[in-house]
């Protein structure tokens, strides 16, 4: 592999990468015995990324090596360097620069929404999704701090409910303005 140790990391990650690839029986994400969701964070795009069995089964462009997903989600900043890999599909090449622990310090927070939003239209899932949406609306608006890479509340913006009402107000004013001068 020949990866060099990053100045910002204590290890080069080679041992971990080799061990993960050696231990995995399943090679591709869509081949797992159960549906899985693997949360991680792309440090180049500054956004959370999740890989899921359901996405990979439904869309050939989402098929990825399971080892890439596992290494990406375990690339703990400071200890291991970010993990870079590419996914090639007929629609083009997608590049990832992944670390763990930046946006999904509690991975189940992000998973609640993802699990409830699958195509399963059972009443429980719909109710769960509605509850997650209502809970989210009461939380403070957050953004990634570019210095730390962590999501932090933006107290001056209020809650997501406040931000959504503000957006709706601005859109309504814009629509009135456009109709007035058209």
Q: How many angstroms separate the termini?
A: 62 Å
Beta-strand percentage? 15-25%
Main beta-sheet strand count, sense and barrel state: 4 strands, antiparallel
Give the strand tally: 6
SSE-based structural type: alpha+beta
| Radius of gyration, in angstroms, nearest whole number | 20 Å
Structure description:
This protein is an alpha+beta fold and about 180 residues long. It has a domain at about 1-105. The chain is built from six helices and six strands; from the N terminus they run H-E-E-H-H-E-E-H-H-E-E-H. It has helices spanning about 15-25, 55-60, 65-75, 105-115, 125-135, 160-180, and strands at about 35-40, 45-50, 85-90, 90-100, 140-145, 150-155. It has a four-stranded antiparallel beta sheet with strand order 2-1-4-3. A two-stranded antiparallel ribbon has the order 5-6. A hairpin with a 4-residue loop joins strand 1 (about 35-40) and strand 2. The longest helix has 21 residues, at about 160-180. The chain is extended, with a radius of gyration of 20 Å. Residues about 1-10 and about 110-120 have low confidence and may be disordered.
Summarize the structure.
The chain has 182 residues and is of the alpha+beta class. The protein is 38% helix and 18% strand.
What are the defining features of this structure?
single chain, 182 residues, alpha+beta, four-stranded antiparallel β-sheet, two-stranded antiparallel ribbon, 6 helices, 6 strands, 18% strand, extended
């Amino acid at each position: 592999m020949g990866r060099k140790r990053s100045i910002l990391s204590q290890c080069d990650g080679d041992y971990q990468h080799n061990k993960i690839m050696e231990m995995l029986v399943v090679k591709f994400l869509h081949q797992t015995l159960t549906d899985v969701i693997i949360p991680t964070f792309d440090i180049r795009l500054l956004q959370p990324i999740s890989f899921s069995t359901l996405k990979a089964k439904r869309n050939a462009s989402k098929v990825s090596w399971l080892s890439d997903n596992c290494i990406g989600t375990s690339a703990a900043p400071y200890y291991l360097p970010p993990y870079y890999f590419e996914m090639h599909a007929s629609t083009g090449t997608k590049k990832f620069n992944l670390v763990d622990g930046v946006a999904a310090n509690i991975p189940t927070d992000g998973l609640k929404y993802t699990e409830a939003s699958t195509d399963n239209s059972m009443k429980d899932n719909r109710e769960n999704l509605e509850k997650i949406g209502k809970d989210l609306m009461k939380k403070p608006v957050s953004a990634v701090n570019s210095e730390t890479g962590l999501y932090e509340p933006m107290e001056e913006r209020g809650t997501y409910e406040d931000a959504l009402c503000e957006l709706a107000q601005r859109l309504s004013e814009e629509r009135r303005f456009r109709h007035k001068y058209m």
